[in-house]
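User: Predict structure, ligand 2-acetamido-2-deoxy-beta-D-glucopyranose.
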Amino acid sequence: MLKTFVNLIVLCSLFLAAVVSSKHHGNPADDLVELINMNRTAHKLPELSNSPGLGCVALQCAEECQANCTSDNAINCHPSADDFTEIFAPNCGVELPTFGTISGHVVGCHHKDLTPSEAFSNVLFRDKKSFSLLGNRSHNEVGIGIFRAHKHKGPYLWCVLFSSSQTNTTFVLDDLGRGIKQIKGCYSGLSDACSRQNRNTDQASYVNICVMLFIIFFLSTSLR
Ligand SMILES: *[C@@H]1O[C@H](CO)[C@@H](O)[C@H](O)[C@H]1NC(C)=O
Ligand SMILES: *[C@@H]1O[C@H](CO)[C@@H](O)[C@H](O)[C@H]1NC(C)=O
Ligand SMILES: *[C@@H]1O[C@H](CO)[C@@H](O)[C@H](O)[C@H]1NC(C)=O
Ligand SMILES: *[C@@H]1O[C@H](CO)[C@@H](O)[C@H](O)[C@H]1NC(C)=O
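Assistant: Predicted complex:
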């Protein structure tokens, strides 16, 4: 019985380690920026710099569009220029005088949580129009936000913002570049910009599975 118990502990820790490392090794918004830059360099275009200020604004854009995702994963959502400067920038702590020029945006949604490469080719850059936007020479920076409308299910919303403004002097976040902490979602440009809240609940549910396994184990041995 002790042996089974030890085996169970080992299994559970392996399981947890695997889950934690597979699910939380990176930020999917940063992975998407990497895919965009790989695609651009493959077409001999310069890489875009990954701007956290623009990324946070993109997260606000994704959040604003959450009600506009249809059941067949289509979306029609066009936040106004005023929304960008009057709502999104202040919500992020982007210093308003540094708000640059948005030279393109792509919004997409899906009811399933897709991998970054699925989101890239099946949601964001699947038609000619968005693909030509991806290869536009006037962009200098990019920011991506990913928002999940409900705690444990979709729809998931992606917003990609391109800017033609000069890198490093635009979309500056206050509080020494930290800006205002976001409670929900993920955005690109900071190494760890997925909200902690989401992560902890995900990990907690796997811990719960292990606790359940232990309870079942003890019940079954005590009934013997
Ligand atoms: C979302 O859809 C509604 C209803 O079609 C529309 O009135 C609204 O403008 C859309 N939101 C945005 C930000 O485009
Ligand atoms: C690239 O974007 C700029 C700014 O948005 C636009 O004026 C221009 O027409 C675009 N170029 C192409 C080739 O689509
Ligand atoms: C770039 O993205 C487009 C649109 O998804 C895709 O058709 C093309 O194959 C990609 N190119 C490379 C080199 O990844
Ligand atoms: C922007 O800042 C980064 C890091 O501070 C630096 O490596 C990069 O050269 C700067 N880019 C421009 C265009 O100034």
